[in-house]
Design brief:
CATH architecture of the largest domain: Orthogonal Bundle
Number of helices: 20
Strand content: under 5%
Helix content: 55-70%
CATH topology of the largest domain: Neurolysin, domain 3
Distance between the termini: 68 Å
Largest sheet: 3 strands, mixed
Number of domains: 2
Strand order of the largest sheet: 1-3-2
Order of helices and strands: HHHHHHHHHEEEHHHHHHHHHHH
Bound molecules: zinc ion
Length: 499
């Protein structure tokens, strides 16, 4: 085979896969936002048919040969094509090594597990879900062994989700967080709690929609490239840098909920809108990893959106929109309220300070499950014990405990740490940014676009061309250092609570 011919074949395939994925993505977005409830059954069949087509395009001997040929000739490829080949190999590594019948069986168990988990969660009945969890753990341990026989299975999965991260790195990372944050949270618990009752008055949804428009404008999001929809659980999806879709959920009695969903999801969208034009149509558009994506959404949500400067910028407009609800409330009151830290049970509702401890509980449990050191039957008691130890809260039922997240029912082990790493990346990126810019002053002056330009230049434009560790090096000039995150949280919350 000629190298030019092979590259053309490879690129044509990327184009075709992208077209199918585009169609599936639009269908998925429609299911989540606009389609009527009973549309789901019809969609399932269509999506299954499309998935089978895309599976068959990539998982076959001819394609494996093509990829191996291109890998052997990697030195003759341009940077984008070389990385596309690398990513395609990475994505197929598992499928190439698992016996087909085991993979089919896994998919069956996984889809059953998802529906059983829903019932188990609604009824807070862990015993219903436990046999599935056990099977999924076994599958994941076995699959890791097929793909990387010499690697610890949990390290394999961690590295799949966030390249370069293994238990060695994460054990140290979480030990640092635990040592600094558990006592800090305890000390805050002894202080008088911040008043946030005014956030839970009645905020009409139609007015909150106007607030979303305003926030997207402040963030500099071009509405010609990014739409906003409404859904049960907010998410962002994108098809290319000129077609991003963010979503939010409005609660009449919780103003900050949608406000920060819009900023968070807007951060994800901003990342992808900042990809360089040469990535359009390549398989490298988007973000470098789950952790790096989360670093950008949380950068806008917490580091910018929950800063005093940002609240000073947007509060006059918010007060103008809700004059009765915010009567007598100052910008400083609002700033304190949106930063109120309080140990709680549900990860997705956790504040900026306690968030990573929720992740730590899941990390420790996954680690033990993957090594056979914890029986799936004992997950609830271990979960409840760790919540008590780290966050000081009593878990009243498994619905609000170990059944709260969908990840395990979907067969994902090793994903959770990337949520926490995103915040840590963000704090390190802020430190680097401050050497060149004054982010607080820029935010106060409404010049968030200058900050976005910096992030675009150092992170967004690369899409997946660079790996997370390479991006940190480009943006910060050093390796990952969680010390910045611990310092950022300690400084911010000590000041807030007068410690
Ligand atoms: Zn996110």
């Amino acid at each position: 085979m000629e190298i030019t011919e092979a590259v053309k074949k490879f690129k044509d395939q990327i184009k075709l896969l992208h077209a199918y994925e585009h169609a599936m993505g639009v269908m998925y977005y429609d299911i989540e936002t606009a389609a009527p409830k009973n549309a789901i059954a019809g969609f399932s069949d269509t999506l299954a048919a499309f998935s089978e087509i895309t599976y068959n395009i990539s998982v076959n001997e001819e394609n494996f040969k093509l990829l191996d040929f291109l890998t052997e000739h990697a030195g003759e490829l341009d940077e984008i094509t070389r990385r596309e080949v690398e990513e395609a190999q990475r994505g197929l590594k598992l499928l190439r090594n698992i016996p087909v019948d085991e993979f089919v069986e896994y998919q069956r168990v996984q889809s059953e597990a998802s529906s059983v988990w829903h019932d188990a969660k609604v009824n807070s009945d862990y015993a219903l879900f436990e046999p599935y969890l056990k099977k999924l753990v076994d599958f994941n341990v076995r699959f890791a062994k097929y793909a990387a026989p010499d690697m610890d299975p949990y390290d394999y999965w961690l590295n799949e989700f966030e390249e370069g991260f293994t238990q060695d790195v994460l054990d140290k990372y979480f030990a640092g967080i635990k040592a600094a944050l558990v006592p800090l949270i305890h000390r805050i618990g002894e202080k008088e709690q911040i008043e946030n009752g005014f956030l839970h008055k009645n905020y009409p949804v139609w007015k909150q929609r106007e607030l979303s428009d305003y926030l997207m404008e402040v963030m500099g999001i071009d509405r010609a490239d990014c739409a906003i929809g409404e859904t049960e659980h907010p998410f962002t999806t994108g098809f290319n840098k000129h077609d991003l879709r963010i979503t939010t959920h409005y609660y009449e009695n919780a103003l900050e909920s949608s406000m920060y969903s819009v900023i968070h999801e807007g951060g994800h969208a901003t990342y992808e809108m900042g990809n360089s034009d040469e990535l359009i149509g390549s398989s490298l558009a988007g973000g470098a990893s789950c952790g790096m994506h989360e670093s950008q959404s949380r950068f806008y949500e917490n580091i910018i959106g929950r800063s005093r400067a940002f609240i000073e910028l947007v509060f006059p407009k918010i007060k103008e929109m809700f004059p009765d609800e915010l009567k007598g409330v100052s910008s400083e009151d609002f700033y304190c309220a949106v930063n109120r830290a309080e140990p709680s049970l549900i990860r997705t509702e956790a504040d900026e300070l306690t968030y990573s401890l929720h992740v730590l509980v899941r990390y420790e449990i996954e680690k033990k499950l993957m090594h056979g050191e914890l029986d799936t039957k004992d997950v609830p008691s271990e979960w409840n014990r760790l919540y008590k130890e780290y966050l000081g809260v009593d878990v009243p039922c498994d619905r609000e405990g170990c059944l709260q997240d969908s990840h395990w029912s979907g067969g994902s082990f090793g994903y959770f740490p990337s949520y926490s790493l995103g915040s840590a990346y963000g704090a390190q990126i802020l430190h680097a940014m401050k050497k060149e810019l004054d982010p607080d002053r820029l935010v106060r002056e409404g010049k968030i676009s200058v900050i976005t330009d910096w992030l675009r230049e150092h992170i967004h434009k690369y899409g997946r061309i660079k790996k997370p560790a390479e991006l940190l090096d480009i943006a910060c000039g050093e390796e990952f250092d969680p010390g910045y995150y611990v310092k950022y949280l300690t400084d911010k919350f000590s000041e807030l609570y007068g410690l």
